[in-house]
Design brief:
This protein is mainly beta. It contains no helices and eight strands.
Length: 109
């Protein structure tokens, strides 16, 4: 026989801050372009899922927790140059980002 004991908690109040910046350069003589950008976000009181299991009581608790520390940052760019004849162009782009996320899963007492 299988029994499941469940308890659920919830709390909400999230604030997200986003920032994006971009710089563009273009040469009319060579028809070449360069674009660079940076982006970031920070979430205060982010709502994340939380799961705890207590083997002594058999109680599994599911819920949500407000946490700080979830953020990301990224940067990138792309460039474009025309090929001879100026009917076609070559474009190269790069993008990179890093993210930090907080979450919970706990087993034990």
């Amino acid at each position: 026989m299988y029994s499941l004991k469940v308890k659920v908690h919830a709390n909400t109040q999230t604030f997200r801050h986003d920032l994006f910046g971009m710089m563009s350069l273009f040469s009319t003589k060579s028809q070449a372009a360069l674009n660079l950008f940076v982006h970031s976000n920070l979430t205060e009181n982010n709502i994340v899922s939380k799961s705890e299991y207590n083997p002594s009581t058999g109680m599994r608790t599911f819920g949500y927790e407000n946490v700080n520390g979830n953020w990301s940052i990224g940067l990138g760019g792309f460039g474009s140059i025309p090929l001879p004849g100026k009917k076609f162009s070559l474009r190269l782009g790069l993008n990179n980002s890093y993210a930090r996320s907080v979450g919970f899963v706990r087993f034990g007492t």
